[in-house]
Amino acid sequence: MRVRYGERHKCQGCGKSAHYYRAKKRQSYACEYCGHQVYPKAGTPFERSRTSLHSWFFAMFLFCASRNGVSAKELQRQLGVTYKTAWRMARLIREYMAQVDDDTPLGGPGRKPVEADEAYIGGKDKVGKDDKTIVFGMVERGGDVVTKIVKDKRATTLIPHILDNVNKGARVATDESTSFGDLTKEGFHHGTVNHSRKKYVRGEVHTNTIEGFWNLFKCAYRGTYIHLSEKHMPSYLGEFEYRWNLRYDPHLMLPVLLLAFSKPTLRQPSLSKDGQNVA
Ligand SMILES: [Zn+2]
Hints:
Largest sheet: 5 strands, mixed
CATH architecture of the largest domain: 2-Layer Sandwich
Bound molecules: zinc ion
Oligomer: single chain
CATH superfamily of the largest domain: Ribonuclease H-like superfamily/Ribonuclease H
């Protein structure tokens, strides 16, 4: 109620700036002057959830406080809900974390360098065949990270992502892959690192920051998630981007997430295969 409407708000019934009191038997609040009712859960994902708000908020807190991610199994243990419910809650929280994160362009004149690099996430599939997803990442040092799942690492695939997510004129550090050959022509100040010759750091030209992000994600992948299909990978990446991008303001992680959930759903709520709403 407080996150969505504040301590006081203009009553739809009487037009006054009113304080709302919790109604006794309903999940609503009533205007102090005219008794007009407000249902704070209406239109949010909580409206049709049978899980208590207490559990939802605690789950969100765990996602914000975690470093290596939160598995459904962990939520199940901590909240005492079924695995299915825990899995749906985790999925929705990740989706919201990914949506909140506005991908504003990185770098540019007067700003820190941007590092771009790709990573192979995954392991073997059931028959032992390599089953890796290629993820392309761009990070401004001391700033935000943006990740995109890509089908290959060719220039025609990667360069458009840089054009979409990095400001022209930015200093961009990559490895020496030919995929990045035309970045100078596209208006970036491009520097490369030759990893094969063990020259990892050449002045400001290095890709240590983005590699740090990949390490964090890969560590969670191995330790927390075990197996992750490509279909679900964007929301897991979104979870990690969310925490990364707010790492200097950790006290904002939970309030920002709560605020996102308090708004009427941004898009169609997630439906499970059997057509039921989440949790
Ligand atoms: Zn009123």
